[in-house]
Design brief:
The complex is a heterodimer of chains A (353) and B (292). Chain A is α+β, with helices and mostly antiparallel strands and 353 residues long. In chain A, 24% of the residues lie in helices and 37% in strands. Chain B has twelve helices and two strands, in the order αββααααααααααα. The chains are: A alpha+beta (353), B mainly alpha (292).
Chain lengths: 353, 292
């Protein structure tokens, strides 16, 4: 086990910085989730730890060792791929034993160790099967077993659940969390799915266009996103962002006065509010309903204000629902609201109460 | 659907199949079967005199003759050189050309040109290269003419065969390599496999269907080939141990006009090909791992 450290790491693809001066430390035994939209550089960052991509500038440390110029096989890492990347010509047992074979461990011992790992992942009945005879979930477990078997310093997982169907994804999600907790191995997990990020990691690192936006515990990022990108990206749905004005401290959204004030604030401002902090009311912010999604226990009401801020409101299924196309008014129930700079999108120190 | 209706539908199917069936019948099936008939007749010295029926004895005489046995030996030696080495070099070139390097397209083109070089073209190229006066051998200090040497004539022609088959094997292998999932190769890298280990334990097993196809096609084509031997050695082929069966068939048809013997040789070569490919399917195909 070891910590992993990026020291101002930059990677350039065709003149564009895929990863831009990344500084990030993953602690020993930590489960860190790298999350961001496609093309944000999260996979590139992971592949640089593995040594599958070269580093253009900066240094990567695993433990105390700079690994920037080491071959993947000399880094003592194990990677789990989105496509499973199993060896199609080898049986499950031989797939799992492959890394041990490369270490020069004898046949009897490596197959015995592969069997032990296969048992813990519920693969005992499939040891002699070829990957093509397994389901997607079984294949992914073989890939996990192959990563675990040689007790590497770091696990690297590149969207390992993306090819699984929804119910299996939720199951495997908790399996991986439990596995990591038992083994205590430093794990870096890449995903574009913010639900996986919120539920799996000790900490989340959000990347956008190669730049690290924010690192922290999931709930901290959810409650105090450092900018509008993180605010809108994390959570299902993301935080609603309203174009607003402050007049002598009093905040108005689309001409409607609110009960929120920020002493001393004047001029345009962006106000953030979660879907659960909004409710339909007889007076308040005017909006036009553009969609009603019944999820079961909850209903999402999608609406747009006259000035064009789109938002989502969550209410229980028992509450009266507006019709599609109806004009409604909205009240904000939160006790305090984060404020963002309307131009840079950066979180401001003061809040609206 | 009623039985009558179904039958009517199958007539329609045969109508659509007819052009292909007619072509297959006229150009493949009829000549193939007629060959067995030809083998039973002794050709006359002149096309004006009809050939005479001699029965299967002509076939037995042909395949027990020393000419045939020497030809069979030459054919097997030729094939045993061309196919393994051609496939090996084609595979090596494909592995090299599969790297992401600048200008690789040019190398890929060069490597695959041996496929489109006709037999006559390659014969001229190698005739010049092997020329005892202006070729490369005197320059290398070798003062024999391999094309007139009973020891070297066949191996040298087999080398030309290697050169020519290499391009085809290269195209096969490169196509196979490019369809290999790169994340599997990356997984091997992360799992601690070096370049050689990845090549032998991952890449080549994953290429096995491609390699088997290239091997089978290459073997069949090598068993039948005689082009460069005909052009570079010609009538001297028997005296330099290079009288391969393909060449014997060609000479019996076009030079001696002895169609009966040619037909017997064709049947013999057909049986040899059938046995060799049969053995390959029996013992090698089971080791091929198909991805799905």
């Amino acid at each position: 086990m070891a910590r992993v450290e990026f020291q101002s790491v930059t990677k350039v693809f065709e003149g564009k910085k895929a990863v831009n001066a990344l500084d990030l430390t993953v602690d020993d035994g930590e489960f860190l989730v790298l999350v961001g939209p496609s093309g944000c550089g999260k996979s590139t960052a992971l592949r640089m730890i593995a040594g599958l991509e070269t580093v253009d500038q900066g240094t990567i440390l695993i433990g105390e060792t700079p690994v920037t110029n080491l071959a993947p096989k000399d880094r003592d890492i194990a990677m789990v791929f989105q496509t499973y990347a199993l060896y199609p010509h080898l049986s499950v047992a031989k797939n799992i034993a492959f890394p041990l074979q490369q270490k020069g461990i004898g046949k009897a011992e490596r197959l015995a160790r592969a069997k032990v790992v296969a048992d813990t992942l519920g693969l005992s009945d499939y040891l002699d099967r070829k990957p093509r005879q397994l389901s997607g979930g079984q294949r992914q477990r073989v890939a996990l077993a192959r990563a675990i078997v040689r007790s590497p310093q770091v696990f690297l997982m590149d969207e390992p659940l993306s090819n699984l169907d929804a119910s299996l994804r939720i199951q495997t999600r908790s399996d991986i969390v439990a596995l990591q907790k038992n083994l205590g191995t430093t794990t870096i997990y890449v995903t574009h799915d913010q639900v996986e990020a919120m539920t799996m990691g000790h900490r989340i690192a959000v990347l956008n266009e190669g730049v690290l936006q924010q690192v922290g515990k999931p709930i901290d990022l959810y409650q105090r996103p450092i900018n509008t990108f993180v605010a809108a990206f994390l959570g299902a749905p993301g935080m609603n962002l309203f174009t607003a004005r402050a007049d002598n401290g009093a905040i108005t959204i689309d001409g409607a006065t609110t009960r929120f004030t920020t002493p001393g604030l004047d001029g345009p401002i962006t106000v953030g509010a979660r879907a659960e902090d909004l409710r339909l009311a007889s007076t308040g912010i005017p909006a036009h309903v553009t969609g009603v999604e019944i999820l079961g226990a909850d209903v999402h009401v999608l609406a747009t204000t006259p000035s064009g801020s789109s938002f989502t409101l969550r209410q229980p299924v028992e509450a009266p629902r507006p019709e599609l196309g109806e004009n409604v008014t909205i009240d904000i129930t939160a006790t305090e609201l984060p404020l963002f700079d309307p131009h840079t999108g950066i979180l401001r120190d003061e809040v609206a109460r | 659907m009623s039985v009558a209706g179904r039958r009517k539908n199958s007539y329609v199917a045969y109508v659509f199949l007819a052009p292909a069936l007619i072509l297959l019948g006229v150009f493949v099936l009829y000549p193939f079967l007629d060959n067995f008939k030809l083998a039973l007749y002794q050709s006359s010295p002149s096309p004006l005199i009809p050939s005479t029926y001699v029965g299967p004895s002509q076939f037995w005489q042909t395949i027990t003759s020393s000419t045939f046995l020497q030809g069979l030996q030459a054919t097997l030696i030729y094939t045993a050189i061309v196919v393994p080495f051609g496939l090996l070099f084609g595979l090596l070139l494909a592995v090299l050309a599969n790297q992401k390097l600048r200008g690789m397209v040019i190398y890929r083109t060069i490597f695959s040109t041996t496929v489109i070089s006709g037999v006559a073209v390659s014969a001229v190229i190698f005739d010049t290269l092997l020329n005892p006066v202006v070729g490369i051998l005197p320059w290398l200090g070798i003062n024999i003419n391999p094309l007139t040497s009973p020891t070297w004539a066949l191996p040298v022609n087999a080398l030309i065969g290697v050169w020519s088959y290499m391009g085809l094997a290269f195209i096969f292998c490169l196509a196979g390599l490019q369809s290999v999932d790169t994340s599997v190769l990356e997984a091997a890298e992360c799992d601690g496999a070096g370049w050689w280990s990845t090549l032998f334990r991952v890449t080549i097993p994953m290429l096995s269907p491609t390699l088997f196809a290239a091997l089978t096609l290459g073997t069949i084509s090598a068993l039948f080939s005689f082009g460069t031997i005909n052009l570079l050695i010609g009538a001297n082929a028997p005296s330099v141990n290079a009288n391969v069966l393909g060449l014997q068939i060609y000479n019996n048809i076009l030079v001696n006009q002895n169609f009966g013997i040619a037909a017997c040789l064709c049947i013999a070569l057909f049986i040899v090909t059938l046995i060799i490919t049969g053995v390959m399917f029996r013992f090698l195909e089971r080791r091929v791992s198909y991805a799905r």
